[in-house]
Amino acid sequence: MKSSIIFSSLTGNTKKVADEVLKIMPEGTKIYDLKDLNHSLDDELLILGYWVDKANPNKEMYQFMESLKGKKIITFGTLGAYPDSSHAKEVKENTVKILEGNNEVLGTFLCQGKINPKITEMFMKSGGENNVHTMTPERLKRHEDAAKHPNEEDFSNARSFVKDIINSL
Ligand SMILES: Cc1cc2nc3c(=O)[nH]c(=O)nc-3n(C[C@H](O)[C@H](O)[C@H](O)COP(=O)(O)O)c2cc1C
């Protein structure tokens, strides 16, 4: 099955996961940074990587997802929150909502990714917009935990996740 990986990454976390997923894909699979993609793709299967922004795929990937029709799709994303949190569950649900109807979503994968230290610093000082991100010890711990990701275990989990789906097709 002809397939491509397309990712969007601001600080490199999602790109790292994309490069790992490529390792288990059949030879000839293409990988694109969404910002450099300037032609349409006739692949049957797309593997889409995004970073999480306000509980959704980042804007550029969100818009790309909205443009897709008739594809089989696997998604992976990196986020600051824990992948087993209710926030991560919401992210997956939001992602499926964008794609389903026009496409077949085969699976959604998330792992933590280090948060830009400038963002952590900003929240330490100001609490962010409407103070919703005021830094509590719990939040700081989450930022510190995220700083260790994506790690080798995340890479292995991402590779297995995609491989199992592809083997089942
Ligand atoms: C503007 C902004 C918004 C973010 N919003 C969220 C969010 O809603 N939930 C979350 O868990 N992480 C959020 N994050 C953390 C990023 O999703 C996370 O650090 C991700 O791994 C960055 O990926 P990248 O290195 O590929 O750009 C946000 C980061 C930024 C910079």
Automatic annotation (TrEMBL):
One of its GO terms (molecular function) is menaquinone-dependent protoporphyrinogen oxidase activity. SUPFAM superfamilies: Flavoproteins. Residues 5-162 form the Flavodoxin-like domain. PROSITE patterns: FLAVODOXIN. The lineage of its organism: Bacteria, Bacillati, Bacillota, Tissierellia, Tissierellales. One of its GO terms (biological process) is heme biosynthetic process. Transmembrane segments: none annotated. It comes from the Bacteria. Gene3D superfamilies: 3.40.50.360. It comes from Tissierella pigra. InterPro entries: Flavodoxin/NO_synth, Flavodoxin_CS, Flavoprotein-like_sf, Protoporphyrinogen_IX_DH. Pfam families: Flavodoxin_3. This is Flavodoxin.
